[in-house]
Each structure stands twice: as structure tokens, then as C-alpha cells.
């Protein structure tokens, strides 16, 4: 046996045909970026060692969903001590939140997060109640700024994010900068609080102060039910998996065009869900199967978008379905800027005015269990 470095994970795949969960060991060989898969129950090689350029080591962490040959696999555990030690010390999670004063800068902040090498593995917009805010900031109960802080945090929507990186907690706090935005502007002018904060409580972003707080805050935030979706006069936009690292730029474009984003969630669609959501395109769009495969290949961000006559207005900003056509005819559209081909065309947007509410309900009521 060589001393070649390898990471081994336990992964699960829900085999729909057989209606059972199959477990494998997935090995990632860092020397040549190859993988293999071993069927744990039947004790045999399931996938021979091969190159799989679609999968990078940064996508492997507990809780991740990765797609290998159209199968959606969930990473559930480390399979050996070496992998556990390597990953638990290197990769960690924190909770980040964009505060109500930064609604207009949501896109810019998400873009900075990606550009600094943090990954967003979950994201949700909510409007906290005052009670939520008081619980979230319980450690500050009784301090002079507590009432202001909790009123402010429940005054409008916030975007909460699970952020993953090496040393995620200090990394995100460093990017945020000092608590007081005035101090930040003089001492650390390149930080988020310096750029986007204004004064005192209005300091643009939140970040956990330790791994323990991160775990408490992630659990707290992502179990809050209150999606701010309005479910009228709305259209549904989904940022597709290939464009997820451009999500900040796309969101910024939508806001700068004057649309309101009234709800937002990151979601990893499975095949039955994607097939159900896109059912009307079955037999109509030649790329239907390819589209479902793509939509399930990684996380998407679904949004409820509002304005006058929003479905048609938003289609104008999205641009023609085919990014090639968009680039020639409508170069200032989302698909012209971020699309690759007819399947990977950056965003889905509702086609017909009467479907806007239905599509938003699908994500913000049915999938969110509201
Ligand atoms: P941080 O958010 O940097 O972890 P704290 O946990 O101390 O800072 O405070 C929580 C939040 O309370 C801050 O982000 C800020 O919005 C608000 N806050 C803290 N101290 C003050 C203060 N002296 N005056 C006004 N608001 C404050
Ligand atoms: Mg704090």
C-alpha cells in the first residue's frame, strides 16, 4: 500500500426503484483527483477508480449532497480516523446574517462572501419576530443596546447563511470587521461593517463568535418557520446550480433593476421534486431531462420577486431562454451575462402571469412546510 493521501466518506443514496437507502464508501485520492465507490453491504466495488472532474474535494463535507453520474449522494460520515481528523480541524461552519439595514446590499455581500472563499451551504430570508430576536440575542439581555438591537433585528427581513470554510468562525468575523462601524471605517476599511455599516446597532452583518455559538445559532435560525413570502403579485426566480457562485451578482442585478426580493431560500432539489415543479415542460421542452438533471446537481436559490406586472417585467430582465440568443439580442439580461447554454441558462423564471403565485407557493409553502 502506498502512502498516497486519500479521504474516505460514508455516503448514502436513496435508490428509488428499490425504495431503499444504499450505503457506500466514497474515496477521494488527492494525488490525481480520482474517486472510487465501494458498496458497503454487498462488499464490492461499485465504481472503479476514475477521474471525476465534476467533483472537487471542497464539495466533500458532512451534510453535503454531491451528484455523481446523476445520482444524488449524501455525505453522512467520515469512514476513517485520518479523514475525520483532516476535515474536522480544517473545515468548519459558522452562522452569518445580513441585517435589515443591508437589504439593498444582499447581492454585493453574497458576492464578497464567495470571492473570499467561503461557501454558502444554506441560506434563508426570514423576518424575525421580536421574540425571535430576543431569543437569538439572549446573551445581551439587559444591556443598554438590547431593546434597540432586537427592535432593529425584527424590523425587516434578514438573510441567514450557513458558511463553510477553514476556520470559518474567525474567517467570517475578520471579513465582517469590528462591531462598531465607525471604528471599522477607520481601523479596517475593507471589512463589511466598514463598507456597509452606518452606526451602532446598524452594522450590516452578524457572525457567530465561537463554534458553540455557531452551532446554537444555525439550529435556531434554520428552524424558524417564518418565511416572509407574500404569495401575491409575484414571480418565481431560481438561480440554477451552475450559477450559484454568481448568485450575488444576479441578486444585485435584480435589486438594481428595482424588483423587490420578498423571499429567498437555498434548496437542493431531488429528482421527484424537480420533475414535479417542471412538469409542464415535460414533452414540450426537448431539454426536459437534461434540465431536471442539472437542477438536481447542486444547490439552487429560489426567490419570490415582486413588482407591478412582475412576471412579464421579470422575463424581460431574465432575457431569452437561450443565452446565445440573449447575448446577441439582449446583452444586458441575466441570461446573457451568466448563462452558458439552454439548460445552464443561469435562472428559471415563471413563464405565465397566472403561474407566479403557484410557483412561489411551491417553494415557500409546500417545500418549506409552511
Ligand atoms: P458582534 O455582533 O460583533 O458579535 P456583540 O455580540 O457584542 O457584537 O453585539 C451584538 C450586536 O449588538 C452588534 O452587532 C451590534 O449590532 C449591537 N451592539 C453591540 N454593542 C453596541 C453598542 N455599544 N451600541 C449599539 N449597538 C451595539
Ligand atoms: Mg456577538
Q: CATH topology of the largest domain, anyone? A: Alpha-Beta Plaits
Bound ions, cofactors and other small molecules, one mention each: adenosine-5'-diphosphate, magnesium ion
Quick one: CATH class of the largest domain?
Alpha Beta
Which bin fits the share of residues in helices? 25-40%
Mean pLDDT: 94
Q: Regions with pLDDT < 50 over 5+ consecutive residues?
A: none
Number of helices: 15
* Biggest sheet layout: 6 strands, antiparallel
- CATH structural architecture of the largest domain: 2-Layer Sandwich
CATH superfamily of the largest domain: Nucleoside diphosphate kinase-like domain
Strand content: 25-35%
Distance between the termini: 53 Å
**Physical arrangement of strands within the biggest beta sheet:** 4-3-2-1-6-5
Order of helices and strands: EEEEEEHEHEHHEHHHEHEHEHHEHHHEH
Query: How many discrete domains?
Result: 3
Based on DSSP secondary structure assignment, what is the total number of beta strands?
A: 14
Any idea what the radius of gyration is?
22 Å
Binding site for ATP: 99, 145, 173, 179, 193, 203
Family: Belongs to the NDK family.
Keywords: ATP-binding, Cell projection, Cytoplasm, Cytoskeleton, Nucleotide-binding
Active site: 206, 348
Topology:
Elements: E1 6-15, E2 20-29, E3 34-39, E4 44-51, E5 65-68, E6 71-78, H1 81-90, E7 91-98, H2 106-115, E8 119-126, H3 130-136, H4 146-153, E9 158-166, H5 168-176, H6 181-187, H7 192-196, E10 205-207, H8 211-222, E11 234-239, H9 247-256, E12 260-267, H10 271-277, H11 288-295, E13 300-306, H12 310-318, H13 323-329, H14 334-338, E14 347-349, H15 356-367
Antiparallel strand pairs: 1-2, 1-6, 2-3, 3-4, 5-6, 7-9, 7-10, 8-9, 11-13, 11-14, 12-13
Helix pairs in contact: 2-9, 3-4
Bound molecules: adenosine-5'-diphosphate and magnesium ion.
Residues 140, 145, 149, 179, 200-201, 203, 206, 209 line the site of adenosine-5'-diphosphate (ADP).
Family: Belongs to the NDK family.
Main location: other
GO cellular component, one term: axonemal microtubule
Amino acid at each position: 500500500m502506498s502512502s498516497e493521501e486519500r479521504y474516505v466518506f460514508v455516503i448514502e443514496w436513496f435508490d428509488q426503484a428499490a425504495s431503499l437507502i444504499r450505503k457506500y464508501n466514497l474515496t477521494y485520492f488527492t494525488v490525481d483527483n480520482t474517486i472510487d465507490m465501494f458498496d458497503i453491504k454487498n462488499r464490492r466495488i461499485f465504481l472503479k477508480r476514475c477521474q471525476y472532474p465534476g467533483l472537487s474535494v471542497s464539495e466533500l463535507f458532512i451534510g453535503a449532497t454531491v451528484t455523481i453520474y446523476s445520482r444524488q449522494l449524501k455525505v453522512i460520515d467520515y469512514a476513517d480516523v485520518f479523514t475525520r481528523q483532516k476535515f474536522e480541524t480544517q473545515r468548519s461552519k459558522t452562522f452569518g446574517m445580513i441585517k435589515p439595514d443591508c437589504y439593498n446590499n444582499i447581492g454585493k455581500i453574497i458576492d464578497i462572501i464567495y470571492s473570499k472563499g467561503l461557501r454558502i451551504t444554506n441560506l434563508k430570508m426570514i423576518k424575525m419576530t421580536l421574540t425571535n430576536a430576543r431569543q437569538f440575542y439572549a446573551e445581551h439581555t439587559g444591556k443598554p443596546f438590547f431593546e434597540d438591537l432586537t427592535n432593529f433585528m425584527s424590523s425587516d427581513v434578514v438573510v441567514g447563511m450557513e458558511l463553510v470554510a477553514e476556520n470559518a468562525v474567525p474567517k467570517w468575523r475578520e471579513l465582517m470587521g469590528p462591531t462598531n462601524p465607525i471604528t471599522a471605517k477607520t481601523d479596517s476599511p475593507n471589512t463589511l461593517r466598514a463598507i456597509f455599516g452606518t452606526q451602532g446597532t446598524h452594522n450590516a452583518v452578524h457572525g457567530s463568535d465561537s463554534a458553540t455559538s455557531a452551532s446554537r445559532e444555525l439550529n435556531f435560525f434554520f428552524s424558524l418557520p417564518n418565511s416572509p413570502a407574500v404569495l401575491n403579485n409575484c414571480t418565481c426566480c431560481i438561480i440554477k446550480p451552475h450559477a450559484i457562485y454568481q448568485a450575488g451578482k444576479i441578486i444585485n442585478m435584480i435589486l438594481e433593476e428595482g424588483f423587490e426580493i420578498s423571499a429567498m431560500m437555498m434548496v437542493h432539489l431531488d429528482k421527484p421534486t424537480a420533475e414535479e415543479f417542471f412538469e409542464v415542460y415535460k414533452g414540450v421542452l426537448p431539454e426536459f431531462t437534461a434540465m431536471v438533471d442539472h437542477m438536481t446537481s447542486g444547490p439552487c436559490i429560489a426567490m419570490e420577486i415582486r413588482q407591478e406586472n412582475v412576471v412579464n417585467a421579470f422575463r424581460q430582465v431574465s432575457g431569452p431562454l437561450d443565452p446565445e440568443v440573449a447575448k446577441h439580442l439582449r446583452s444586458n439580461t441575466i441570461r446573457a451575462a451568466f448563462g452558458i447554454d439552454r439548460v445552464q441558462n443561469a435562472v428559471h423564471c415563471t413563464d405565465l402571469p397566472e403561474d407566479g403565485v403557484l410557483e412561489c407557493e411551491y417553494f415557500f409553502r409546500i417545500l418549506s412546510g409552511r
